[in-house]
Specification:
The chain folds into two domains: 2-24 and 149-237, no CATH class; 38-44 and 52-143, Distorted Sandwich (Calcium-transporting ATPase, cytoplasmic transduction domain A), CATH 2.70.150. It contains seven helices and ten strands. The chain has helices at 2-31, 82-85, 134-143, 151-181, 186-200, 204-222, 232-237; strands at 34-39, 42-47, 56-60, 68-80, 91-92, 110-111, 116-128, 259-261, 266-271, 278-282. The protein starts with a helix and ends with a strand.
């Protein structure tokens, strides 16, 4: 019985966390892009993951920069770097050499992975990819933060230890009492002690908690909030203030067209940020 409840509890948690991972993977897939490179004198488009240091990448307005690059050619190139610096203003890029160990925001002859080309174009040489980029360093620092257990898990651990201590004391007392005052066969005594343990363990409690947390995850999902770990729901319930950077986190600092109004009608425009693909609707029809 305990084994069955444990399996059910594990399945509930696995299903909910798998759904969250699938949603996060979908977001990662949307953010992934291709890069236009010049190799062997030819222009070709390759997945961002195939870039290596030394590749020559061509940038155009609306592109998401695929790697850290040193610029060798610019044409009124302006880049939005809020994802790295938090600054909402776009940065004019140049190709001139700079002296000294400059902070990230002052390296105007470079472009960085994850930033967005807001205007113009340019050509750059890849200097770092993946985890070696400035954005990758930030992700590594975030991943290195020690994970803290939620108050619910801490209380569950305390409850489990208390129940274990009580059961152990009862088993020892019952064993001594049975041997001293009653002539009970050892086999029957062991069965009685095992029955006591099974009866005392609240095997349904973990499953009930998982179900309650799963309901919270589903409620958050309906509000378009992805919960990666079930215990996070309990922590969110005690949260009163959220301190967050706006630009690059809540907003993208990318002005887009939502409607086109003419003298005769109104067109509704849908799309994903600066991506060249989109949809235009008139009266509900595409």
């Amino acid at each position: 019985m305990i084994l069955g409840v444990t399996v059910i509890n594990a399945l509930i948690g696995h299903i909910q966390e798998s759904n969250a991972e699938k949603s996060l993977q979908g977001i990662r897939n949307m953010l992934s892009s291709d890069a236009r490179v010049q190799r062997n004198g030819k222009h070709e488009t390759i997945p961002t993951r195939d870039l290596v240091p030394g590749d020559i990448v061509i940038l155009r307005a609306g592109d998401r920069v695929p790697a850290d690059m040193r610029l060798i050619e610019t044409h009124n190139l302006r880049v939005e770097e809020a994802i790295l610096t938090g600054e909402s203003t776009v940065v004019d890029k140049i190709t001139d050499a700079l002296e000294g160990d400059l902070p990230l925001g002052d390296r105007v002859n470079m472009v960085f992975s994850g930033t967005t080309v807001s205007a113009g174009g340019g050509v750059g040489v890849v200097t770092a990819t993946g985890a070696q980029t400035e954005l990758g360093h930030i992700n590594q620092m975030m991943a290195g933060i020690e994970k803290q257990r939620t108050p619910l898990l801490v209380q569950m651990d305390k409850l489990g230890k208390a129940i274990f201590a009580i059961i152990l004391a009862m088993m020892v007392a019952l064993f001594i009492f049975s041997l001293a005052l009653r002539d009970i066969p050892m086999g029957e005594l062991l069965l009685s002690l095992i029955s006591l343990v099974v009866a005392a363990v609240p095997e349904g409690l973990p499953a009930i908690i998982s179900i309650i947390l799963s309901l919270g995850v589903q409620t958050m999902a309906r509000k378009r909030a992805i919960i990666r770990k079930l215990p996070t729901v309990e922590t969110l319930g005690a949260m009163t203030v959220v301190c967050s950077d706006k630009t690059g986190t809540l907003t993208m600092n990318e002005m887009t067209v939502k409607a086109i109004i003419t003298a005769d009608c109104c067109y509704r425009v849908e799309g994903d940020s600066y991506e060249p693909q989109g949809r235009i609707f008139l009266g509900g029809e595409r």
